[in-house]
Amino acid sequence: MLGEMEDRCTTGFYNVLASRKAEEAVWRRYQATEWLESVVGPLGISNKPSEKEFISRLRNGLILCNAINKVHPGAITKVVENHVPIQFITREPQPLPAYQYFENVRNFLVAMEELKLPAFEASDLERDALEAGSVAKVVDCVLALKSYHEHKNTNGGNGSFKPSRSPMVGHNATRSNLHGIPSDSCRRLEMNVSAEAHLSGNAEAQKLEGELVKVLAEYMADTKENMGGNFLASFKAGDVDPMKLFGRIVASCLKENEQKKFPEGKTVLRDCLKDSSNLPVHLEATPVGVDISEDKNSKCCQTCLSKGDCNHRRLLHIQERELQDLKTLWATTRKEFEGLQSQLQSDLTQCGFQVQEMASAAQGYQRVLKENRILYNMVQDLKGNIRVYCRVRPSFTSGSSNAVEFVGEDGSLVIVDPSKPTKDGRRHFQFNQVFGPTATQEDVFDQVQPLIRSVMDGYNVCIFAYGQTGSGKTYTMSGPSGGSAKELGINYLALNDLFHMSDRRKDVISYVIRVQMVEIYNEQIRDLLSEDSSSTKYPFKLFITG
Ligand SMILES: Nc1ncnc2c1ncn2[C@@H]1O[C@H](COP(=O)(O)OP(=O)(O)OP(=O)(O)O)[C@@H](O)[C@H]1O
To answer: For residue 231, how far is the Cα from the chain centroid?
Structure first.
């Protein structure tokens, strides 16, 4: 029966504290938000934020750094800014890259350490770390900074400052079975929390002790049917040792699962009860979350522990956490770097393939071009190395008898001597092609244009006009003087073509074009471009006319 009562008593006590802790945690979070806004301006979240909102907003460390710099100017010299205007910050802002906000958070934690103010672990700000206690640690830290700020403002920074700790105990706020204790007891446990924040450590402890006594007394009174005369008599007879009973109650508080959330508990209790021979045996035997044996060799730590606190141990713990955070960050960064490296590698390989493809395509193009050129000039050869065309000039006098009797498409021409209309007066000629009196300059050039391309491919070509005076040589080769663009002769059209082709191929080959103009007259060759009229230079390339 006593065991059952102990269990109910313990459960009820926990539930009251859990309920109170939850209320306190909310109130403290609002207090922290309000103070931060008063120091750094609007945070862009509601003034009564949820745990998630609160932590999300502090995650990049910017607000924390700015706040500590306001409280203690110069505490952090370099703050990594996030240039997102406050009005654009959503409830779930885009986080900075991990390494950037880690720098802010780390600088803030170091600055808090230097001010000897309670800090938290960087991992408490992680997105997934919203577990019991992690937000409370951040809130505690902000409120400690707030208290320090107020201390500085009131005392001008004189006198030592002792941050007041959260009055909460490490217990799971979600614990159920709230019905295990009368509801009016719960109500009576509600405290004026704003007044409590100003209580000293001793007064706070005394008040908590008073509340504990009240709860236990009320609970025992409410369960008087279990408190029969035998139980009270056993107290009187000394069968029940009150110290042992209390020890058992406390030991139940420190069950292994609770130890994880309140690892300092055993150390504190050991120190409290070390002079007592009534320390329950099973409390000694209960495994705890923190192994204090590691301190056995350190006299310094033993001394510290005897005072109830060990800064070295706390620092070691913080540094271990930070080391763990750094390891995680390092692993993430290495993974990102490896990803980038393999991406770059595959991009380079891809690039290499594309260059290879382009090179082989260019090679193929050159090969095809060469084949094409060979075939093209072969066709020109097949058409005949020497080609003779005939152009019939239109008659100047209308009505005069025409000597041209027939012009065939196959290049045949029949001439009739008007003075000999018999068979003897008819002469037949065969050319590559015959241009009739109506043929235009363009018709004639179409037939010789393919030869211009052969010139550009390195073949020698000669086009010249031959005929009696007034038959139209100059007209065909140069065009009439003062004529329109349509009447330009072969010389001009061929040169135009040469320059166009040279321009089109300029990326592949550079051409040098030279022009000579000579005249053969009375079997004398004369250079028409030479200033020396007696000059008889005559190696020519393109054409002659005269
Ligand atoms: N196809 C043609 N259509 C119209 N007019 C032409 C044509 N061929 C020649 N003529 C005209 O005939 C005349 C004589 O032509 P052109 O001067 O070209 O002869 P030519 O053979 O160069 O003579 P020469 O040997 O004396 O220099 C010119 O007035 C020219 O304009």
So the answer is: 72
| Structural contact between residues 233 and 23, judged by C-beta atoms closer than 8 angstroms | no
Cβ of 467 closer than 6 Å to ligand 1, yes or no, is: yes
Between CA 143 and CA 155, with CA 149 as vertex, the angle to 5 degrees is: 135
CA of 471 from ligand 1 middle (Å) equals 5
Grade residue 329 by pLDDT with cuts at 50, 70 and 90. Answer: very high
Is the CB of residue 329 less than 8 Å from the CB of residue 98?
Answer: yes
Nearest residue to 106 (alpha-carbon basis) of 86, 82, 127, 78: 78
- Residue 539 Cα to ligand 1 middle (Å): 27
- For a pocket test of ligand 1, which of 475, 478, 490, 519 has the largest count of ligand atoms closer than 8 A to its C-beta? 475
pLDDT in tens, 395-450: 887 766 678 888 998 999 999 887 876 777 888 999 999 999 999 999 999 988 88
Domain 1-161 classification at class level = mainly alpha
Domain with CATH 3.40.850.10 in the chain: 389-504
Do the Cβ atoms of 218 and 182 come closer than 8 Å?
Answer: yes
Q: Does domain 389-504 sit in CATH 3.40.109.10?
A: no
Q: Which protein residue's CA is at the shortest distance from atom 9 of ligand 1?
A: 472
Q: What is the pTM of this model?
A: 0.39
Domain with CATH 1.10.418.10 in the chain: 1-161
CA 471 to ligand 1: nearest atom: 21
**Residue corresponding to tokens 């071009």:** 369
**Confidence class of residue 121 from pLDDT cuts 50, 70 and 90?**
confident
546 touches ligand 1 (CB under 6 Å)? no
Distance from the alpha carbon of residue 470 to the mean position of ligand 1, in angstroms: 5
CA distance readout (Å), 471 to 384, 392, 468, 475: 25, 8, 6, 9
- Give residue 393 CA to ligand 1 midpoint distance, Å: 8
Residue 17 structure tokens: 């504290």
In ligand 1, which atom is closest to the CA atom of 467? 21
